[in-house]
Structure formats: structure tokens, C-alpha cells
Automatic annotation (TrEMBL):
Enzyme class, broadest EC rank: transferase
One GO MF term attached to the UniProt entry: glycosyltransferase activity
Presence of the UniProt keyword Metal-binding in the record: no
Protein name: Glycosyltransferase
UniProt keywords, alphabetically: Glycosyltransferase, Transferase
Pfam families named among the record's database cross-references: Glycos_transf_2
InterPro entries in the record: Glyco_trans_2-like (IPR001173), Glycosyltransf_2 (IPR050834), Nucleotide-diphossugar_trans (IPR029044)
Lineage: Bacteria, Pseudomonadati, Pseudomonadota, Gammaproteobacteria, Enterobacterales
UniProt family annotation: Belongs to the glycosyltransferase 2 family.
Span of domain Glycosyltransferase 2-like: 11-167
Enzyme Commission number(s) from the entry: 2.4.1.-
Coiled-coil region: none
Length: 272
């Protein structure tokens, strides 16, 4: 069986309860357990988070490594720092407020084993309210490499919290780069533009907490500026033509100016 690392990053505003759920889902309930878990503490945390992390690291001293950053640097830089400590070439991403299905690692490892040309593998997700008590729908993504190539022009073809990737390839294309709200989309574009094979599983392998806070982060002028940066990257990497890229930028930007209530309805419709 392929050995692998799970990579997470946590910062001060996150919930200790949600982080505990995430740890349970990757260290207790998996059919195949990780060989290593790298947790990046992105700046100073609350005492509640610190106590919980200490508890888990004492329970799994041979698996868990906790890396402390003196100040908050943001997700992309924190993950890049984490990659330096990953002992294994296959790295599985996980967010600290989400929940892995019990067979997530097993299914992705099997696919990787039988498809050795794949360097990046994700899956679909099921979205829930903050308490995980009510399903809000699914975010389905294209599965085959060719379908992903068509989709990447329009929307992010991967759910970041589901991906497994080859560390050597990610580092070769420049790793995570600062791109507010879109570090992952930026990285996938560079991997695809470099000609590597990618895929998604049709299974929903992670339960994701969503809500108005997520929608609020995806609107406003700052987010539109990030969309424009993304459009320029697609042109630079020849993922899309200038005309199509800027047209898509316009279509993606208009909803970012709408009230949160309306934008939430748009997201719900897209998930159906």
C-alpha cells in the first residue's frame, strides 16, 4: 500500500469542536489510516485549540507532527511550509472543519495504485450546514482528465479538501502561491498547464461545512480582483483564450456584487 501524509492547516478563528471531528474522521474511523499527519499552526491559536492539538499529538506521537508558525501567513504559505515536513510523496489535503468519509483514503489509494500516471486526484463533496445536521447538496466535479480540461476554463475542477497529490510535482510547478481565496485553483491550473494527468472520483468522500460565512467570503471587490488575477493566469498558461477568459471573468464577477441571500440561492442552484 502507498504510504501517505495528510496535510492540514489551522488558525485562531477555527472551532476546536470541528477540528476534533476532523481528527476523528482521519485517525479513528478510516478503513486505511495515514502514515503521517502534518498540522500547521498558522500563527497563535486559542487555548482551546492548543489543548485539543496537544491531546491528539500525545495520542498519536508517531503519526502527528505539529509545526508552529510564529505569525499568521495565510493558507497558501502555511501549506507550502507544511510540504517541507511531509515525509511521503503522496500528500492528502484535508480542512480542519470538514469530515472525511470512512473509505476516503482507501478509495483514493486504490485509484492511484491502478492509475500511476495520475498526479492529482480529488472527489465530489456533500455540503452541510455548520452542525452537519442538514445536507445542502453536492458539489460534483468532472472525473476524467479530458472533462477536467474542458471544465477548468469555467470553474474550479477540484474540491480542495478532497485532493491527493504528488508532492514532487506540486513543488516542481511552484507549489502554492499567494492568490487570495484561490490558491488551490491557481495551483491546479499550473499542474494542468504543465501537462500532467489529473482526475476526480465520482464518490462524495468529504462532508463539508458551508453557510453564509462561506458565501460572504466569495463576494465583493476583493474577490473580483482575485477573479481577474485568475483570468490572467489562464491566458498566461494557455488554458483559455483571452476572449473566453475575460468573458468568463465578467460572468463570474457579476454575482459577486449581489446580496448574500441571492448569491446563496445561486450556489444552491449550482449544487443541484
Amino acid at each position: 500500500m502507498i504510504k501517505f501524509t495528510v496535510l492540514l492547516s489551522v488558525y485562531k478563528n477555527e472551532s476546536a469542536e470541528y477540528l476534533n471531528d476532523a481528527f476523528n474522521s482521519i485517525l479513528i474511523y478510516q478503513t486505511v489510516l495515514p502514515n503521517e499527519v502534518i498540522l500547521i499552526k498558522d500563527g497563535r491559536l486559542s487555548s482551546e485549540l492548543d489543548d485539543l492539538i496537544y491531546h491528539w499529538s500525545k495520542q498519536y506521537p508517531k503519526i502527528m507532527k505539529v509545526i508552529e508558525l510564529k505569525e499568521n501567513v495565510g493558507l497558501g504559505k502555511a501549506l507550502n511550509e507544511g510540504l517541507k515536513y511531509c515525509s511521503y510523496n503522496w500528500v492528502f489535503r484535508m480542512d480542519t472543519d470538514d469530515y472525511c468519509m470512512p473509505d476516503r483514503f482507501e478509495k483514493q489509494l486504490l485509484y492511484i495504485h491502478f492509475n500511476p500516471n495520475i498526479v492529482l486526484l480529488g472527489s465530489c463533496i456533500e455540503e452541510f450546514d455548520s452542525t452537519m445536521s442538514r445536507s445542502l447538496g453536492y458539489r460534483n466535479v468532472p472525473c476524467s482528465h479530458n472533462d477536467i480540461l474542458k471544465y477548468v476554463n469555467q470553474r474550479n475542477p477540484f474540491n480542495h479538501m478532497t485532493v491527493a497529490f504528488r508532492k514532487d510535482i506540486i513543488e516542481l510547478v511552484g507549489g502554492y502561491q499567494h492568490h487570495l481565496y484561490m490558491e488551490d485553483y491557481n495551483l491546479w491550473i499550473r499542474v494542468i498547464a504543465a501537462g500532467y494527468k489529473v482526475a476526480n472520483l465520482q464518490d462524495s468522500l468529504v462532508k463539508v461545512r458551508c453557510g453564509d460565512s462561506m458565501v460572504k467570503r466569495r463576494k465583493g471587490i476583493t474577490y473580483i480582483k482575485s477573479e481577474f488575477q485568475l483570468a490572467k493566469l489562464k491566458i498566461e498558461k494557455k488554458i483559455d483564450t483571452p476572449l473566453n477568459s475575460y468573458l468568463n471573468f465578467t460572468l463570474r464577477s457579476i454575482p459577486r456584487l449581489l446580496p448574500t441571500s441571492i448569491l446563496s440561492k445561486i450556489y444552491k442552484k449550482l449544487r443541484k
